[in-house]
From TrEMBL:
It comes from Nymphaea colorata. This is Uncharacterized protein. It comes from the Eukaryota.
Amino acid sequence: FLFLGICAVGVWTGLKVAAIAGVASTIPT
C-alpha cells in the first residue's frame, strides 16, 4: 500500500507539473 501511495503521489505531482507547464507555455512572454 505504501508503494502504491508513493506511486500515486508521484503521478499526481507529475500531472500537476505538466498542467502548470502547459498553462505557462500558453502565456505569451
